[in-house]
Amino acid sequence: MRSRLPSLDYGEYTTTWDRVAKAGLRELNIDAWAAGRRYLSLATLVLSSAEASQLRDVTTRFGGLLDAAVDGILADPDWWSALAWPWPAIELARQEPTHPNGRASLFGRFDCLLDHRGTWQVIEFNADTPSGGRESSGYEPAIARLPSNDGLRRLHTTSIGSHLETAIRQRVAQHARRVRCIGIVSSHTWLEDMAQATWLARRLERAGLAALVGDVTDLAADGDRILLRGQRIDALYRFYPVERLYRHAVFASLCEAALDGRLLLLNGLRAFLAQSKACLAWLWSNRSVLDVAACDTIERHLPRTILARDPAALDLLADGVIKHVNGREGDSVVFGRTLAVGAPEWEGRLLEGGYVIQRAVEQVTVEDVEVDDLLRRVTRVAPKFACVGAFTIDGAFSGCYTRLDGPITTARATYVATLHQTT
Fold first, then answer.
1. β-sheet with 225-228: strand ranges across
2. pLDDT of 229
3. Residue 85: what are its φ and ψ, rounded to 5°?
């Protein structure tokens, strides 16, 4: 894995950047700038054919493993406290209908790191409100066509949007009741997530499915009907975190409607559970009771991940990364070597509960570019760490969403296209 950099001439770079950003608007990429900096980078992450093939395989394998982890945790009360969930939410997840083939989530993204041995390591899964679809379907094709990327190809030539359309259309057809309208909600105060909601609605409408976008506060229950902006919906997709939705009065009505089949939840509580880091700890702790192939996949591609309250956690502290099971965007992530045993920061996490510790991955580093618009200068920056998001839709690999940042990926990361060598 390496990065391929564009021209460092400021005029040429910014002209090309503007063209790519404009192309992304067709897929509602309206946030090429973030907090005054260029979120979109024209650097390209280049994988070898072998690295690309391994990533596809790992994504497919772990999709099934996460489904098994969700079922395993919900069937084992000893693991419920590890979720840091209120008990009613756990019981609702236990009763929530699964997707066909026992899938916990229809659409998700594995965040992967390539270690120095050339082996992909799965560090997280995002299935509650997975981001990156707009970038993959909007920016990546435009970047792949740049002359600077001659000889490189996309890992997945079919649009992620098209895959998602097909998967949701099939899921709707399998629902026991007719789905006339799909509601898609987020918060009007979150530009990116509302853009994602609108992007998905447009894709579904292209597939012949009626879709309605609204704010989460536009959801309401009226008798046995669930309404969005006063209109009845028969299915719901959220770009709004479930832990926030849980605080809304309509949450109970949504769950009740899902349990009795009146509402198809396309990303329900099981999807939220699937992205919990507790599922990764469950897989590591229970790998020996799974089949040989599953055990081998876990030991090869999942860094050792255990609950922070596990007695063995202290042995992993110096070489580990501590994460909250429900954390998002790098929130609550800290390297264990920065904490001393008995330090308030470590003891506080143990008292709070809901943390795991995962062996840190010795990553391959790459380069990125940084643009100074005041000095009209483009420079190389290194080292950067590539967090490669591998999409899975209904269990199949469906493209990538890669961000470059420091050792911990945060909201300040830059987006880069992921391509692979043809030979």
1. 219-222, 225-228, 231-233
2. 98
3. -110, 150
CB 240 within 8 Å of CB 187: yes
Q: Which two tokens stand for residue 267?
A: 């990303």
- What is the tens place of the pLDDT at every residue in 143-161? 999 999 999 999 987 889 9
Backbone φ, ψ for residue 7 (5° rounding): -60, 140
pTM over 0.85: yes
Is the separation of the CB atoms in 359 and 341 below 8 Å? no
Give the residue carrying structure tokens 């973030």. 34
DSSP 91-134: HHHHHSPPBGGGBS-SEEEEEEEEBTTS-EEEEEEE-SS---HH
Q: Closest by alpha carbon to 185, among 122, 117, 254, 136?
A: 254
Distances (CA, A) of 352 to 68, 97, 103, 355: 27, 31, 31, 8
Is the CB of residue 44 less than 8 Å from the CB of residue 4? yes
The DSSP symbol for 231 reads: E
Angle at 328 between CA 326 and CA 330, to 5 degrees: 120
Q: How far is CA 225 from CA 169, 246, 261, 370, in A?
A: 22, 19, 11, 51
Q: What is the pLDDT of residues 210-224, one digit of tens each?
A: 999 999 999 999 999
In the block, residue with structure tokens 């010795």? 362
Give the residue among 341, 269, 327 at the shortest CA–CA distance from 96: 269
**334-335 and 365-372 as β-strands: parallel, antiparallel, unpaired?**
unpaired
63-84 pLDDT, tens digit each: 999 999 999 999 999 999 999 9
Q: What is the dihedral of CA 40, 44, 49, 51, to 10 degrees?
A: -70
> Is-contact 5 43, C-beta < 8 A?
yes
Q: What is the pLDDT of residue 374?
A: 95
Cα dist from 390 to 14, 125, 219, 229, whole Å = 28, 9, 31, 34
Residues 244 and 328: their CA atoms lie apart, in Å, by: 13
Radius of gyration of the chain (CA): 21
Q: Which residues contact 332 (CB under 8 A, 6 or more apart)?
A: 322, 323, 324, 355
Cα angle 75, 81, 83; round to 5: 80
In this prediction, residues 309-318 reach a mean pLDDT of 92
